[in-house]
Each structure stands twice: as C-alpha cells, then as structure tokens.
Design goal:
- With about 325 residues, the chain is mostly helical.
- It has one domain (about 1-310).
- It has 13 helices and 2 strands; from the N terminus they run H-H-H-H-H-H-E-E-H-H-H-H-H-H-H.
- It has helices at about 1-25, 30-50, 55-65, 65-90, 95-100, 105-110, 135-155, 160-190, 195-220, 225-250, 255-265, 270-280, 290-310, and strands at about 115-120, 125-130.
- A two-stranded antiparallel sheet has the order 1-2.
- The longest helix is centred in the middle third of the chain and has 29 residues, at about 160-190.
- The protein starts with a helix and ends in a 16-residue tail after the last helix.
- This is Multidrug resistance efflux transporter family protein.
- Keywords: Membrane, Transmembrane, Transmembrane helix.
- It comes from Metabacillus rhizolycopersici.
Length: about 325
C-alpha cells in the first residue's frame, strides 16, 4: 500500500505538467523550450541532492560501466517520454493529453514479458520471464472506459488533426517512460538509489535536450520570462517531486511485475488532478454528470487494479527460462 500511496502522490505533482504545458502553449511558448528547460532546471537540483548524500562517485562508476545504456535508456525514458507530451500539449487541451497518457496503464502491463523477475523456489531464487498480469489488465480496461466516457463530450469538439497530433505522441510516450524506467532498474540491480538513477537518466538524456534547445533557438528564439518561470515550476513539481516519488514507488515493487503494473496504474488519477487544475487555473468548464461518471470509473478501476494485482502471482514452470543478465 505504501507504493500505491506514493504513486498517487506522484500523480498529483505530475498533473502540473499537463496544466502548465497547456498554459505555456496558450501564451505562445514553444513546446521545444517547455520540454528542454524542465531537464536543464532539474539537473543542478539533482546534483545537489546526490552530492549531499555522498553518492555521486558510485553513480559515475556505474555510468562508466555502461555509458551507451545510460545514454539510450535515459533518452528513451525521459526524452521520448517528455518531448512527445509537450508536443501533444501544443495541439490539445491538458485534459485530453492527461487522459490519453493513461494508456500507460496498458503499456506497462504489455511490457512485462520483455523482462525477467526473481522468483523464490525450493531450490533457491531464479530469474523467470514475466507474464502479462491478466487480472490487472482487465481492470485497466475499466479505467480506460472511464477515461473514454469522461472525455467523449470534449473530444467530439476537436478536429481529427488535433486529435491525432495530441494522441499519437502520447501513445509513444506511454511506452517509452515505463520501458526506460524498467531497463534502468534492471541495469542498476539495486546498486543505485532513486536519486542516483534519476540523475543518471537526466545526464544520459542531456544530448537530446541540448539538440532540442538548439532547434528551438533557431526556430522561435529565446524563451519568454513567463515560459522560463513556468518551466522551472514544472521541473520542481513534476520533474523532481513527482518523478522521485514515482521512482521510489517502483523501487519498492521492482521484483514483482504485477505490483509494478499496479503502481503504474495509479497514474490514472492524473486526469482528475489535471481537470481540476484546468478548472481552477485555466477557467475550464465544470465537468458534466457524464464526466463525473467517468471519473468514478477511473477511481474504481484503479482500486480494483491494485487489489487484483496483489493476488496475481507469477506461476513458475519447471521449464522456466534460465536466469538472464543484462549488459
């Protein structure tokens, strides 16, 4: 339950991303700056945290062992996650982006067979390939139905182009974020804490953000003061607080793919927080009774997903795949 609670708290702070990104787009800011500035602002804070914990040297030692892995999965987990989110914010309202982002509930579950997890047997622990948590997957569909109901009235008012440009990038992000996170957990194998891992992934994604900022500089000039300030708050609320809370939650259950999928399912609450944020800060209309019904399904589906995932145990076959080491 602690991991679930941390996941819900992280979803609250993640919601700031969707609301503030939409606010920046409405004020004329480039999505390229919205994306890259967040990670530039995150970097010094993460350095201070890791240095204060006297854990910078161990991080660099681990990064030197697999530099290309850190570059690849840092770019996938952070770059191909956040850049598409910001791009989508340029074409659709915060509620639509946040709602579409909940596809990560399914994405996380579908990625399970790509990884191995430790299972205790009479002959000692072994590494076996994960299986898709079918019970949790069924509960995920309840969450998605709720999201569909909640957003139907609003989505019907958008053009096909706006719908596609705000949905397809988020679909890409929904797979990139859990994939990068899980790959780095498998690479670190408990050697690094959540602060070190987030800093390492941020450093690994820097070439991507530098490239985006150069493109932004030549296409739209320097960012405005308002966009810079809002990007700073996105970095603090979403980039630091939410990311660290979420990564800590996944750390607690990293050896159980079913529970890991349950933690990722808590991010469905983001759509509620984002909608409330839009109502308060961007004067969005109050949800209709149909939308409230959808919200109830989202919350109910998340609770059921968490419950069934507790009992969704991995069955070990006598012909299970042998242990696998990640390089």
């Amino acid at each position: 339950m602690k991991a679930i609670a941390l996941g819900i708290c992280s979803s609250l702070f993640f919601a700031f991303t969707f609301v503030l990104n939409r606010s920046m787009e409405l004020s004329g800011g480039s999505w390229l700056w919205s994306a890259s500035l967040r990670f530039f602002f995150m970097l010094p804070f993460l350095f201070l945290i890791v240095i204060g914990r006297n854990k910078l040297a161990p991080l660099f030692i681990e990064m030197k062992k697999h530099p290309l892995q850190w570059l690849l999965w840092g770019t996938v987990g952070f770059g191909l996650f956040y850049a598409p989110i910001c791009f989508a914010g340029a074409y659709g309202p915060a509620w639509l982006v946040a709602a579409t982002w909940q596809i990560t509930i399914l994405s996380g579950s579908l990625l399970v067979p790509l990884f191995y997890e430790e299972v205790k047997t009479a002959n000692g622990p072994i590494q076996v390939r994960g299986k898709i948590p079918m019970k949790g997957l069924c509960m995920s569909f309840i969450i998605l139905i709720g999201i569909g109901i909640m957003q139907y009235e609003h989505a019907s008012q958008l053009s096909i182009k706006s719908m596609l440009l705000s949905i397809i990038p988020v679909l890409i992000a929904s797979f990139a974020y859990p994939l990068g996170n899980r790959k780095m957990m498998a690479l670190c194998t408990g050697k690094l804490d959540v602060f070190q891992r987030v800093l390492g992934m941020t450093i690994g994604s820097l070439p991507f953000w530098i490239a985006l900022s150069i493109i932004a500089l030549f296409t739209s000039g320097l960012p405005s003061k308002t966009q810079t300030i809002q990007s700073f708050w996105v970095a603090i609320c979403s980039g630091l607080i939410a990311t660290l809370l979420f990564f800590q939650a996944t750390n607690l259950v990293q050896n159980n793919m079913a529970k890991l999928a349950a933690v990722e399912a808590t991010q469905s609450i983001e759509v509620l927080f984002a909608l409330i944020g839009e109502i308060i800060f961007l004067s969005a209309p109050i949800p209709t009774p149909i939308s409230l019904l959808g919200m109830a399904l989202v919350i109910g589906g998340m609770v059921l997903h968490s419950y069934v995932s507790r009992t969704d145990r991995l069955e070990v076959s006598p012909h299970a795949d042998p242990p696998k080491q990640y390089s």
